[in-house]
């Protein structure tokens, strides 16, 4: 039965990131005061993924502040950082830095490398690509499906930052906005993407082994630093197995209804619904967070069912 309670969808402005524009604002639009800093003095170690000395970063509460710390440690612009991986310098999408950081994780920052422009013929409705973003304005390719449209173009690689589509600059867009843009492109037409691949080392194997050695110490504890767009970072336990399975199920529902798999989008939906008491509240929360998708009521109800099951099992 349709919910019919979300009313008129409010326009959601595109998110822009001060990092990309070079403005030292907080991820939520304002700076974080010193009194909001994490109560514990946490120090992390970082390297540039293509090769560098080891730097120290501390005193950050958001991804944007972390990038600024890394940039300061290596004397580069924060806008040069595409994304970070944990405990490996490789472009490993399973080890992307997201909203949580293990207290002993070693951070590798991937910076801008070669620019490229690619023409793509959209022969199928689905391009066979999963998009994610770094949380501060850069969307990039997380997965490429074997045999898909994008898979046939070998110059497009996992980890490439998408700078523009058909001449439209998409810096500052969230990953779901970029996925929606690609999905809406007409079938059997050619479109153009400008991409930036991360800078790579000529010989990365020796440092890869060193990164693995550091990682053996890390991941043994379950405490993590939770980075937030507003407010201070907090030390928390790792997400429960129940939550992880619920997010995977939401990803399955996304594929069923929308034809996409996007674990980051599924996580965003789970977070939007975990503290809601009924599907109507959840629907309103989705419209406020992901309104551009205009999810059908049946989809919302199915996702709410997954979240409800997880809540009954205990998160």
Describe the 3D structure.
The chain is α+β, with helices and mostly antiparallel strands and 315 residues long. It is 31% helix and 22% strand. It has helices at 18-21, 63-74, 175-184, 205-217, 241-258, 263-273, 279-290, 297-313; strands spanning 43-48, 55-58, 81-86, 100-102, 106-121, 129-133, 139-144, 161-165, 168-169, 190-198, 223-226, 234-237. Helix 5 packs across helix 6, helix 5 (241-258) runs antiparallel to helix 8 (297-313) and helix 7 (279-290) packs across helix 8. The two termini are 28 Å apart. The model is unreliable at 1-35 and 203-221 (pLDDT under 50). It comes from Piliocolobus tephrosceles (Ugandan red Colobus). InterPro entries: GH2_GIPC, GIPC1-3_GH1, GIPC1/2/3, PDZ, PDZ_sf. Residues 117-184 form the PDZ domain.
